[in-house]
Target: Phosphoesterase RecJ domain protein
Amino acid sequence: MIQKQQHSLLNKAEEACELLGRHLDQDHVVRIISHNDADGISAAGVMCNAVAKQQGKFHVTIIPRLKDENIAKFLKEKYKLFIFCDMGSGNLRGIKRLKGDVIIADHHQTIDSKEELSNSIVHVNPHLYELDGTKDVSGSGVSYLTVRPMGCKNLAGLALVGAFGDMQYKNGFTGVNKMIQDDGVDSGNIEIREDLKIAYRSNEPLYKALSYTINPVLKGISGDEEGAVTFLEKIGISYGIKFTELSNEEKDILKAELVKINPKIFGDVFTIPSEVPELTNLEEYSNILDACGKNKKQGIGLSICIGDRKDSIQEAQKLVKSYREDLVHGIQWIKKEGSVIQDNIQYIYTEEKRKKRIMGTLSSIGLDLEILDPGKPVLAMSRMDNIIKVSGRTTTEMTEMGVNLGYALENASKSFNGSGGGHNIAAGAVVPYREMDNFLNLVDEIVRTQLNS
Ligand code: C5P
Ligand code: C5P
Ligand code: C5P
Ligand code: ZN
Model:
């Protein structure tokens, strides 16, 4: 059954590819619009690389969300082909008004998916074929599918960078992601080997590297330098040297002890061997793009993806450094302050600029570390003057019990003149500040209903 559904998705992607090909044949500039997170930036990167390979021209814009005012601006543009990556499925009514042809390469669940579309719009989204866009394919993956018939297996690695960014790698890749993985391995673009997944292990002293390691999380160590030092002292390994400087025997001891804390710390590591060293590891590549997006430097991220690297990588690495420091401080903050608990949800709140951009990520990490109760979805609230930006995160277990934060935030925000949506496990919204308490109570109520139905 899945095979058949995947086949239908691939057929739709092929239709999109033919449309793209017709515009490239006529030398039209391709208008690409994508999302400002790691997945969206790599999705745009996949598109641009594929267009460039066909000697085509493109014009890219990376935005945080597709709002009515963005669409109003695109309505004035004279491009003959618009491509929306990692967004668009929730904006069909607006997109239908564009004058040119349109390809939507998205993986978000959508309420207006039943909207009648004309032939000039090709909508590629796994949810339209009952496939799982939260786990099985990301925005960069759907973008990859739409250029795959042009012979783009060299982009399989970049397509999985977005899947890592959207946290779709669990104990492996599944569904379309697995197919992309196979494309990459078969064509030599991707290599996979088992190893310890310690972040920045060749660049930082071991205690720091361990405290920066959040994927997977290490309880008592992630975000906690003192915890990392204590752990290393206990197992008799000096904390000040780099992982790469350890003897093989020390590496074995470290591995055995870390696996006791979290078995996922030893597992498959994905690399693009032909990439420059800073981008070889797909998870590190994704972190770099994520840091660019979270700092509103999406242009640097995109430059990296399309091969204009001279200064971009160095610039991005500075952003990574400040980003990971912010995460460490954020983890300490959550450990200290905890969350405000309601019946069915919990929330954290900030007005601090450096925290605002990482509130969603902090919620995920807090749940993984269990410094936030995994049994209640987390709403992370960031105040921006008169509005509140909301990031919702929960666990696979809660989604299996019926929680769908995408629908909860979409419905609740609409009741207060806001907007929202996303995936069952991770979603976002914007609501007026004065409605914050009412909004939280309504989400609490919706989650209660979801759990009881
Ligand atoms: O808009 P987009 O789909 O790219 O973003 C998905 C978001 O959901 C990302 O912020 C990602 O980190 C988050 N996510 C999560 N936990 C998951 C899956 C996704 O926090 N298990
Ligand atoms: O949820 P959001 O998109 O903000 O999280 C984005 C980034 O945080 C991703 O790159 C993801 O890999 C990282 N992350 C992580 N480990 C966690 C939570 C998030 O690496 N436990
Ligand atoms: O902003 P954040 O990382 O919390 O977003 C999580 C998910 O919710 C993403 O997939 C994002 O595209 C989606 N979202 C949305 N509408 C919003 C805010 C976020 O669909 N207003
Ligand atoms: Zn995405």
